[in-house]
Design goal:
alpha+beta; 20% strand; elongated; binds phenylalanine
């Protein structure tokens, strides 16, 4: 029996397997239930007691040698597999083109608005989208029963005391005025919310840019000049503006501003409903009651404010017909906007 074991042991280093399948066959041949090693174990049982020790040791050596050889072969096969995978990488192939994103059209237009006003000396200001009744309505001189506070327009987060999703960026005005003494010259872009059914022409959220200027001798003429400059920078040198009397609780007098239709140049078209004019913003002189509510002496200071919808300006610049496109994130739509901003 010793001889048999020795011959087997001598042949172990010559065992070969090139793939997982032949390796498994080899394992079964040696280590399987009916394999060579088990045969030897059966034979071992009838070995005379005085030889058991020696033969037992030889059997163990053989078993370890076979296991080690199988493990060696297993590692060789795995390494070959990796080499093959590595060879499959074609380093000469040109790289995949990286898809470049574009800025959202609303961001492009907002950045452009902010850029124009910062060149006119306005600093950027910011405020929370979830705000209290005081900053959104009360400080802005909304009467207790003003319809804008109604459930139909305002999303209430909490009631008594009221916490709301701001319905306009004018809430940033009250915050800035509370925290800073004039001169104040800020521009406040931000998202606002109104409880409206979503359609092509209305959405439950949209974006505004608010402007506020407070100093000693601010007049309506200053407001008009700044807005004319803005309109020309935004829509072209030939743009004309007109101001129509209007009403906002926080400004007195108040106005709405139209620009000459940038699509037909003022001749009249479908877009401007054949009037030659399109409305773009609300504005006015800050009501003294607002200044006083926010801790600014209305006998010393005066100011103007204006607010515009970013979607509206974007529609005019890019003729987007359906407001919903702005929030659907369809890349085919978004890819059309390439810009330096
Ligand atoms: N807050 C007004 C609105 O949401 C816009 C506005 C701002 C009007 C500032 C006048 C002055 O419609």
């Amino acid at each position: 029996m010793i001889e048999k074991i020795q011959t087997l042991l001598a042949s172990v280093p010559t065992l070969e397997a090139n793939d997982a399948k032949s390796l498994e066959a080899l394992r079964i041949q040696y280590m399987g239930k009916k394999g060579l090693l088990n045969d030897l174990m059966a034979e071992f049982r009838s070995v005379p007691a005085e030889q058991k020790r020696e033969i037992g040791q030889q059997l163990n050596i053989l078993k370890t040698a076979v296991q080690e050889r199988l493990q060696q072969l297993r590692e060789q096969i795995a390494a070959n597999g990796e080499n093959e995978a590595a060879e499959a990488i074609d380093l000469t192939r040109t790289a995949y083109p990286l898809p470049l994103g574009t800025r959202h059209p609303l961001s492009i237009v907002k950045n452009e608005i902010v850029d124009i006003f910062s060149r006119l000396g306005f600093a950027l200001a910011d405020g929370p989208e979830v705000d209290d009744d005081w900053h959104v309505f009360s400080a802005m001189n909304f009467a207790e029963d003003h319809p804008a506070r109604d459930m139909q327009d305002t999303f209430f987060v909490e009631q008594h005391p009221d916490i709301v999703l701001r319905t306009h960026t004018s809430s940033v005005q009250s915050r800035v005025m509370e925290n800073t003494q004039p001169p104040i010259r800020v521009i406040c872009p931000g998202r606002v919310y109104r409880n409206e059914a979503i359609s092509a022409r209305a959405h439950c959220f949209f974006h505004q840019v608010e402007g506020l200027y407070i100093d000693r001798d601010v007049s309506f003429t200053d407001l008009k000049q700044v807005l004319l400059t803005f309109a020309r920078e935004m829509f072209g040198e030939d743009t004309r503006i007109r101001l129509r009397p209007s009403y906002f609780p926080f400004t007195e007098p108040s106005a709405e501003m139209d620009i000459s239709c940038n699509i037909c140049g003022g001749k009249g078209c479908m877009f401007c409903k054949h009037t030659g004019w399109v409305e773009i913003l609300g504005c006015g002189m800050v009501d003294p009651a607002v200044l006083d509510a926010c801790g600014i002496d209305s006998k010393v200071y005066r100011g103007y404010a204006f607010g515009m919808g970013v979607e509206r300006i974007t529609n005019l610049k890019y003729r987007v017909k359906d407001l919903r496109l702005f929030s659907e994130n369809d890349v085919r739509f978004l890819d059309e906007f390439q810009s330096a901003y």
